[in-house]
Fold:
Amino acid sequence: MNGGADVNGMRAKARHELAGLRVGVTEKGWGALVSRGTVTAQRLRESPVPLHEGDFTFPLAVIDRAALLHNIGAMASWCSEHGMQIAPHGKTYMSPEIAHHQLANGAWAITVAGVSQLQAYHAYGVHRFVVANQLADRAGITWLSRRLMAEPELRVYVNVDSAEGVAFLADELVHAGARRALDVLVELGHPGGRTGARSPDEARAVAVAVAARPELHLAGVSGYEGTLGHHGTAEENERVATWCRELAELGADLFSAGLLAPSYVVSAGGSAFPDVVALTLMTAAVEGDPVIVLRSGAYAIHDDGYYASVTPQQRAADGPPLRPALSIWAPVLSRPEPGLALLLLGRRDAGFDEGLPIPREIRHRDGRRTPASGLTVTALNDQHAFLDLPPDTELAPGDLVHVGISHPCTTLDKWRVIPVLDEEEFVVDLVHTFF
Structure:
C-alpha cells in the first residue's frame, strides 16, 4: 500500500470514529436530547432533529452547514486559481470534522499553534502539519520526534527565529534520539510584532544556524502579517505588502545561497489580508519554484463582525466570497425597562474580544420571525447580555434572539459539541471542538 492510500485509510477510520462519538449529557444545549437516548453524528445524519420545538435548550451555538461548506470550497478554489496552497489554521475551531472537510477540499496541511493542538488533530487522522510557532517544551519535542520516527507518513513543519532557538530545538532532538530530521521554516517577523527574526539579515543568520545542524532540515520561510494592520486600510495594506516582499526575497536569497531546495515553502497568515498576501507573494521576484502556503483559519466559519468588516469583498478587492457560518440562539429572560432586555447569553457563551454579538432576528414564542431592527448588545456579563432596543419593540420573555458573532476563535472555544443545521433548521450533523 502506498503512503497516499495509507493516509486516506487513516482519515476514513478517523471520520468513522468521530461519527460514533456519543454526546454527553454535560454538553451545553444537548442535555434533554441526550436524556432520551444515544446521540452521535451518525444518528443525526440518519435521523435529523429540529432545532426549534424539540429538545434543545438555549443558549445554543449552531453552525450553518451550507455556509461552512461554501466557505471551505470558496477558499480552496480561490487559492487554486492563484497558484497557492492553503494550510488552514486549526486553532480557530480545533475541530477534526472541519479539518477533514478542508483536507477533502485539497488543503495542503492543517496549521496548529503547538504540540498539544497537533496531538488532538493527529489523534483523528491528520498527518500533515504546519506549527506556526517555535517548539519550546521538551516533552512536546520528544513526543513529536518519536512520532516522526514511527510514522513515515507524518510531515511536520515548525518555525525557528533565533540561533538560540535552533540550538535548543536541535539539542532536544538529539536528547530524544531523533533519527529523522525535522522540517523547519525560518520565521521573519517585524519590530514590535510577535515571534520572528526582526530583520531579513537576522533571518539569514538563523538559516545558517539551521544548516549547521543535521537534526534539522531547512524547508522554507514563514511569518505572520496580521500584526501589521487590523482594519484593511490602504496604509496597512502597503505595510503588509512590503513585509510580504521581504519574505519572498528572503526565500529567494536562501535558495540562491544553496540553503533551500527548489520547492521550498513560503508561508504567511492571510486571514484578514488574503488578497494583499496573495498578490504580493505571487508577483514577487523569486528564485526556484516555491510553494506558497496561506494559513488562514477564520475563513471556514467567518463572522458577522470583525472579519466581515475587513474581508476583501468589503474592500472591493479580490478574495473568496465568505458567509458567516456560526451563530447563537439566546432566550429573552427579562424586559425590566422599555428600552432594555436581558438575554441568557454571556461571556461563557460568546466571544467579545473583537466586538459584541450582533442581533440578526427574533423568533417569537408563536414561531413568528421578525428582523432584529434597532437591537444592540451593549455588554456581556458571565451569563447575561444587555440588549438595548426601541421601547416599542415586540419582545418578551421566552422569545429567542438570534445573534451573529465577531471573531470566531473565542466563541468556538466555549462550545465542545456544536449542532450543524441544514436549510430547514434541522440538526443534521455535529462538530466537536477539542480546545
